[in-house]
UniProtKB/TrEMBL annotation, chain A:
Pathway: Amino-acid biosynthesis; L-valine biosynthesis; L-valine from pyruvate: step 1/4; Amino-acid biosynthesis; L-isoleucine biosynthesis; L-isoleucine from 2-oxobutanoate: step 1/4
Source species taxonomy: Bacteria, Pseudomonadati, Pseudomonadota, Alphaproteobacteria, Rhodobacterales
Organism from which the protein derives: Litoreibacter roseus
Protein name: Acetolactate synthase
Entry keywords, A to Z: Amino-acid biosynthesis, Branched-chain amino acid biosynthesis, Magnesium, Metal-binding, Thiamine pyrophosphate, Transferase
Matching SUPFAM superfamilies: DHS-like NAD/FAD-binding domain, Thiamin diphosphate-binding fold (THDP-binding)
Entries under InterPro entries matching the protein: Acetolactate_synth_lsu, AHAS_TPP, DHS-like_NAD/FAD-binding_dom, THDP-binding, Thiamin_PyroP_enz_cen_dom, Thiamin_PyroP_enz_TPP-bd_dom, TPP_enz, TPP_enzyme_TPP-bd
All copies of domain Thiamine pyrophosphate enzyme N-terminal TPP-binding, residue ranges: 5-120
Class in the EC hierarchy, top level: transferase
Known EC number: 2.2.1.6
UniProtKB/TrEMBL annotation, chain B:
Native source organism of the sequence: Litoreibacter roseus
UniProt keywords, alphabetically: Amino-acid biosynthesis, Branched-chain amino acid biosynthesis, Transferase
Family: Belongs to the acetolactate synthase small subunit family.
Role played: Catalyzes the conversion of 2 pyruvate molecules into acetolactate in the first common step of the biosynthetic pathway of the branched-amino acids such as leucine, isoleucine, and valine.
InterPro entries: Acetalactate_synth_ssu, Acetolactate_synth/TF_NikR_C, Acetolactate_synth_ssu_C, ACT-like_dom_sf, ACT_dom, AHAS_ACT, AHAS_small-like_ACT
Gene Ontology BP annotations: isoleucine biosynthetic process; L-valine biosynthetic process
Subunit and partners: Dimer of large and small chains.
Enzyme Commission code: 2.2.1.6
Molecular function via GO: acetolactate synthase activity; acetolactate synthase regulator activity
Keyword Nucleus appears in the UniProt entry: no
One Gene Ontology term, aspect cellular component: cytosol
Record's catalysed reaction(s): 2 pyruvate + H(+) = (2S)-2-acetolactate + CO2
Annotated protein name in UniProt: Acetolactate synthase small subunit
Length: 585, 189
């Protein structure tokens, strides 16, 4: 069944038919017909951001916190180019997002028209797919395809560029059922022979580890449940990447903490010494592998991933399994159970003894202070005062604070932790917290921030205020580009080139100027009360937590080093990175 | 979507032993990719190669099914075995890509290229050019009193060889189509 309507009406109709209730956007000349339709309806809530980059990160936060795709609407030219960072961020972190952009009318494309940009050209490498729609008759179909592509297989961002004349013209609209989506159908079921081979290895493994990642969260709640069941049934230890935090509960007995460059000692040592590594929805990122030729030299490796290009890209694996985590784990559990639920009990017991020794190193301990707030302490207190809140959602900016948040905050559920992992986008956290709070209006949403990152998209405080979103901006203010400063200390002989945050604003006044509450804290003795103050306030808060300026984030695997060559808190950092490591990032 | 032939359990070793032995082996592969013939599809494929630092030795593209809107892209590329595998996986995951075949790996295939050679000269050189063209079964598709345009179809090596011979005889311009290739025998359906 097709219906006649204008292109602008089709956009709104298609969003409604896709079950969208919220979009993030910013108007302009090339999307006015769509905004006119938005004005005349009530089913879709439009959140007016302050910058298109903010819209994309808000949509990412919304998507990660709900499991639904995030939707963004921007105008042509600068509206579209401002969305590029968010598109790239979503591509790197496999976040489903649909960006609809306005374009100059079809008959003006190529003429350097006002606010014309080659949006599909610019966004081709930073989207999973994109479309320029030149006929109104194809618009409905294309938008449905866009949702299909963004959410199926490895999720990712897509963009639909819609010229203004296409929005005005009438055409026939097709619904989601009639849309032509069949040719994009990534495989979700894993190869049974490979899964059986993995079950065999699991029976014999004496030093196994489950290396989980963002793919578990992408796969959905069922995958999380199956992972937990697998861990419980086998007794295998579990670690996770930055992107997978929460898929196995941090309070669970088999949790080793995050792995990787700033991961926990026990997690990295277990990865290095294991004899069976089961990668479930992670992508052997360079923050994980360190020196590739020294990565877990004694293990057999299995890799479950929906994207064939993730397999054998960085690390050669013995058992590749292409498929969706949920589907594969279901088969794996069934096969392993039907073969008698065997594990190498003795080997496992010894393995856990070894792991306990590593745990006893207590790699996250740090020297606390009575006079200055240590950033680690600030996060420990934040954790202590909020961990009972089942509805706690954390976003972060990028830098040391992000890593400390990953180390010191515990997540017992998936979709509670939104961070920019692959692209490492400073300025992600505040708009992401806005998106999360829009999705969960009554939840506790905290953005753990560094002052430098936070300034990159601070205009979104206006959005928070406008929509009464009580987001808490917990800024660990070290007056430094801390992560950069740390690398300069380790690599460039303390030459701190431009890694200061100078001329910082008064964050309390800034908060007040936005109509939010401002809190400042510099004394560890006041910290608990100040945090309670923040939590008690029914509205957005900017919390300026003045912390130790020169704290380094440990543990750390220096670039170019192996997993068992970690720098610990009290280690000497001189010459930690050799000249070969220095060229790496 | 294509199903990619990534061999499972190809090795009993871990990454530690495996990374290096293959790193220096550079192979040449001919890939054939069936894509939806939509706007920008060629830019997408080329962008993949430039963006990820892969090599393109030759690339040809043309629509092969007008009603089904599909085109065949034939790409000759070089790289280590791991890179070649990545290229195929990266092509396979693109939304408008229907099939990826590695003709070099999947059995015997035929590869052909068409080339046009403009050769100008007088006297002995002109006679010699014509004689060699005959031996190579090149056709004369244009001739003036001082020049010829030869047309030749063959493997890339044959075209290279003919070009080398024509150079001292007055080769002025050369146009090549790049490789088109098909697997031998009936198509799998
Ligand atoms: C300053 C900084 C420091 C960092 N340090 C660390 C660190 O110490 N440790 C760390 O872990 N990270 C760190 N990161 C993050 C790191 O850069 C990567 O983003 C992260 O490690 C990647 O996580 P992942 O492997 O889980 O993959 P993701 O990026 O989450 O990718 C998911 C993988 O799962 C697959 N997948 C998706 N959906 C499915 C499905 N349904 N079924 C099966 N497979 C699926 C995808 O194809 C992909 O291969 C850091 C980032 C920054 C900015
Ligand atoms: C947009 C962007 N520009 C530059 C960088 C490089 N970078 C990574 S961390 C960092 C410093 C972040 O400082 P801050 O937000 O204060 O956090 P801290 O490390 O001090 O906790 C910089 C500049 C980046 N990740 N993103």
């Amino acid at each position: 069944m097709t219906r006649q309507m204008t292109g602008a009406q089709m956009v709104v109709q298609a969003l409604i038919d896709q079950g969208v209730d919220t979009i993030f956007g910013y108007p302009g000349g090339a999307v006015l017909p769509i905004y006119d339709e938005i004005f005349q309806q009530t089913e879709i809530k439009h959140i007016l951001v302050r910058h298109e980059q903010g819209a994309t990160h808000a949509a990412e936060g919304y998507a990660r916190a709900t499991g639904k795709p995030g939707v963004v609407l921007v105008t042509s030219g600068p509206g579209a180019t401002n969305a590029v960072t968010g598109l790239t961020d979503a591509l790197m972190d496999s976040i489903p997002m649909i960006v609809l952009s306005g374009q100059v009318p079809t008959f003006m494309i190529g003429n350097d028209a006002f606010q014309e940009a080659d949006t599909v050209g610019i966004t081709r490498p930073c989207t999973k797919h994109n479309w320029l729609v030149k006929e109104t008759d194809k618009l409905g179909d294309t938008i449905h395809q866009a949702f299909h592509v963004a959410t199926n297989g490895r999720p990712g961002p897509v963009l639909v560029d819609i010229p203004k004349d296409v929005q005005f013209a009438k055409g026939s609209y097709v619904g989601p059922q009639q849309a032509d989506t069949k040719h994009y159908a990534p495989r979700v079921k894993g190869d049974i022979d490979a899964i059986t081979a993995l079950a065999e290895l699991m029976e014999k493994a004496q030093r196994p580890i489950l290396y989980t990642g963002g793919g578990v969260i992408n796969s959905g709640d069922a995958a999380t449940q199956l992972l937990r069941e697998l861990a419980k049934a086998t007794g295998f230890p579990v670690t996770s990447t930055l992107m997978g935090l929460g898929c196995y509960p941090a309070s669970g007995p088999q949790w080793l903490g995050m792995l990787g460059m700033h991961g926990l000692y026990e997690a990295n040592m277990a990865m290095h010494d294991c004899d069976l590594m089961i990668n479930i929805g992670a992508r052997f990122d360079d923050r994980i592998t360190g020196r590739v030729d020294a990565f877990s030299p004694k293990s057999k490796k299995a890799h479950i991933d929906i994207d064939p290009s993730s397999i054998n890209k960085v690390i050669h694996v013995d058992i590749p399994i292409i498929g969706d985590v949920g589907h594969v784990l279901e088969d794996l559990l069934r096969i392993w159970k039907s073969r008698g639920r065997k594990t190498h009990k003795e080997g496992l017991a010894k393995w856990w003894t070894k792991i306990e020794e590593w745990r006893a190193v207590r790699c996250l301990s740090y020297k606390n202070s009575e006079t200055v707030v240590k950033p680690q302490y600030a996060l420990q207190r934040l954790e202590a005062l909020t961990k009972d809140r089942k509805d706690r959602y954390i976003t972060t900016e990028v830098g040391q604070h992000q890593m400390w948040a990953a180390q010191y905050l515990g997540f017992d559920e998936p979709n509670r932790w939104m961070t920019s992992g692959g692209l490492g986008t400073m300025g992600y956290g505040l708009p992401a917290s806005v998106g999360v709070q829009v999705a969960h209006p009554d939840a506790l949403v905290i953005n753990v921030a560094g002052e430098a990152s936070w300034l990159m998209n601070m205009q979104e405080m206006g959005t928070a205020r406008q929509y009464d979103l009580p987001v808490k901006q917990f800024i660990l203010n070290n007056e430094r580009l801390g992560m950069v400063r740390q690398w300069q200390e380790l690599l460039h002989a303390n030459r701190y080139s431009h890694s200061w945050s100078e001329a910082l604003p008064d964050f309390v006044k800034l908060a007040e100027a936005f109509g939010a509450k401002g809190i400042i804290c510099s004394d560890p003795a006041d910290l608990d009360d100040a945090i309670r103050d923040m939590l008690a306030h029914d509205g957005p808060v900017v919390f300026d937590c003045l912390v130790e300026k020169h704290e380094n984030c440990f543990p750390m695997i220096p670039s170019g080093a192996a997993h068992n060559e970690m720098l610990m808190g009290d280690a000497s950092t001189e010459d930690a990175i050799d000249t070969k490591g220095a060229v790496l990032v | 979507m294509s199903t990619l032939k990534i061999k499972k359990g190809t090795s009993k070793h871990s990454a530690y032993d495996l990374k290096d032995p293959n790193a220096d082996i550079i192979e040449t592969h001919t890939l054939t990719v069936i894509v939806t013939n939509e706007a920008g599809v060629l830019a997408r494929v080329i962008g993949l190669f430039s963006g990820r630092g892969y090599n393109i030795e030759s690339l040809t593209v043309a629509e092969i099914d007008h009603e089904g809107h599909t085109s065949r892209i034939t790409i000759v590329t070089t790289g280590t075995p791991a890179v070649i595998t990545q290229i195929k996986a990266q092509l396979g995951r693109m939304v408008p890509v229907h099939e990826v075949h590695d003709l070099t790996e999947e059995g015997p295939s035929v590869e052909r290229e068409l080339a046009l050679f403009k050769v100008a000269g007088h006297g002995d050189k002109r006679v010699e050019a014509l004689r060699l063209a005959d031996i190579f079964r090149a056709n004369v598709v244009d001739s003036t009193l001082e020049s010829f345009v030869f047309e030749m179809t063959g493997t890339s090596e044959k075209i290279d060889a003919f070009a080398d011979l024509m150079r001292p005889l007055g080769l002025q311009e050369l146009a090549r189509t790049g490789v088109a290739a098909l697997a031998r025998g009936p198509a799998e359906t």
